[in-house]
Specification:
The protein is an alpha/beta fold and about 325 residues long. Helices cover about 40% and strands about 15% of the residues. One of its GO terms (cellular component) is cytosol.
C-alpha cells in the first residue's frame, strides 16, 4: 500500500555523469543518457546535471553540452542544470547557451544556478581567470541574466541571441543558508544540496519560507531537496552497493581523486576521527535500503521537511543496480 505522503511530492534525478572504474568517457556519457531515458520511463519530473571540474569521477564539466545530449535523446522529461556555477561563466554566455537549448527543446529546459565554483580553489582561479571573482555578486548576476532574457533588452547594445525572449525557469541552488535568503528575496524555487551538505538543510528551508516574497516567477515557496538514494530489493543488498558511494565521499574528504569503485574494491576504514565525524555529517541525508525501509525513513523526512520535490542522487557502481534503484524509488510515488 502506498503512503499518501509521497503523492504530494514530485521526484527527480541529479546526475554527475559519474565515471566508473574501467569505463571510458564515451561509455560514461552513454550510461548517462540511458539513465535519463529510464528516469523518463518511470515518470520522473526532471533530470539535472551538475557542473564540477577537476574530479576524476565526475564527467559533467561541460554541463550545457550534456544537457543538450540528454534532451536530444529523451522526449518529455525536463532536463537542466543542478547547477551551472555562475561565477565560472559570463551571464551573456549562460543566456545564449540556455536560450539555444530552450529553442531546441521548448518547455523542457531548467536552469539551476549556484554561486560555488564546483571545484577546488586553484581550478576555480583558472576558470575565472584570476582571483577577482571570488567576492561574487550572485544577486546582481541573476538580475543581469534576467535582463538578457527579457524582450525589453531588444534595444540594448548587447543582446543574447538566442536567449532573448526565452522562458525557461530559473532555480537557486544552495548548500548553506546564504542562498536561502536570496532565493526568498527573488521569489524563485530553492533547491538544497542535501546529498553532500545536509547540516544546514532545515535552517535553510525555514529561512527561505519565512522570507519568501512572491514574484512573477513563483507565487509561493517551492522547496527541492537533493538527497542520496540507494535502493535495492533488500536492505542488505542496498547496504552492499552503497559502499561505492561511501568510498567516494571518503576519497573527497581525504583528497584522493579516483573513479567510482566496485563495492568489493572499497576500503571504508577511516583512520582520522575528524574524517569520521565529517563523513557522518555528509551522509545525514542518505537513504539506503529496500522499498519498505525507505517508505518509512523517506516518508518521515518528507513529512518533517514539507518539501515539494525530492531529487535523487544515486551514486551506484553497478549500472543495472542503479537503474533498478531508480525503478524502486519511482514506485514509492
Amino acid at each position: 500500500m502506498k503512503d499518501p505522503i509521497f503523492e504530494s511530492v514530485r521526484y527527480s534525478v541529479l546526475d554527475l555523469a559519474t565515471v566508473l572504474e574501467g569505463d571510458s568517457l564515451h561509455a560514461t556519457f552513454q550510461k548517462t543518457l540511458e539513465a535519463a531515458q529510464t528516469a523518463e520511463r518511470f515518470g520522473y519530473t526532471r533530470y539535472w546535471l551538475s557542473e564540477h571540474h577537476n574530479m576524476a569521477n565526475v564527467a559533467s564539466s561541460a554541463t550545457t553540452l550534456l544537457i543538450g545530449y540528454v534532451a536530444g535523446g529523451t522526449e518529455k522529461i525536463r532536463v537542466g542544470s543542478g547547477g551551472i556555477m555562475m561565477p565560472n561563466h559570463s551571464t551573456l554566455s549562460i543566456a545564449e547557451q540556455f536560450g539555444t537549448l530552450d529553442a531546441l527543446y521548448p518547455d523542457r529546459i531548467d536552469l539551476g544556478l549556484g554561486r560555488a565554483p564546483g571545484t577546488d580553489g586553484k581550478t576555480a582561479t583558472i576558470l575565472r581567470r584570476g582571483n577577482s571573482l571570488f567576492d561574487y555578486d550572485f544577486e546582481n548576476s541573476i538580475r543581469q541574466l534576467y535582463q538578457y532574457l527579457d524582450t525589453s533588452n531588444v534595444t540594448s547594445a548587447v543582446r543574447a541571441i538566442p536567449g532573448e525572449g526565452a522562458e525557461f525557469p530559473l532555480y537557486i541552488l544552495g548548500s548553506s543558508t546564504d542562498s536561502a535568503h536570496l532565493a526568498a528575496k527573488l521569489g524563485l524555487p530553492y533547491a538544497f544540496a542535501g546529498h553532500f551538505a545536509p547540516t544546514q538543510f532545515f535552517d535553510a528551508i525555514e529561512i527561505y519560507r519565512n522570507e519568501f516574497q512572491p514574484s512573477e516567477h513563483l507565487e509561493k515557496p517551492y522547496v527541492m531537496a537533493c538527497v542520496n538514494i540507494i535502493m535495492a530489493e533488500t536492505d542488505e543488498e542496498a547496504q552492499y552497493i552503497s559502499r561505492s558511494h561511501v568510498q567516494a565521499v571518503i576519497n573527497i574528504l581525504t583528497d584522493k581523486r579516483a573513479p567510482l569503485a566496485h563495492p568489493d574494491k572499497t576500503d571504508l576504514k577511516v583512520y582520522s576521527e575528524q574524517v569520521h565525524q565529517t563523513l557522518q555529517k555528509w551522509l545525514a541525508l542518505t537513504f539506503v535500503g529496500s522499498k519498505a525501509t525507505l517508505q518509512k525513513s523517506l516518508g518521515d523526512f518528507i513529512s518533517k521537511s514539507g518539501i515539494n520535490e525530492i531529487i535523487a542522487y544515486s551514486n551506484i557502481f553497478d549500472f543495472s543496480a542503479k537503474l533498478n534503484s531508480y525503478k524502486l524509488f519511482s514506485e514509492l510515488f
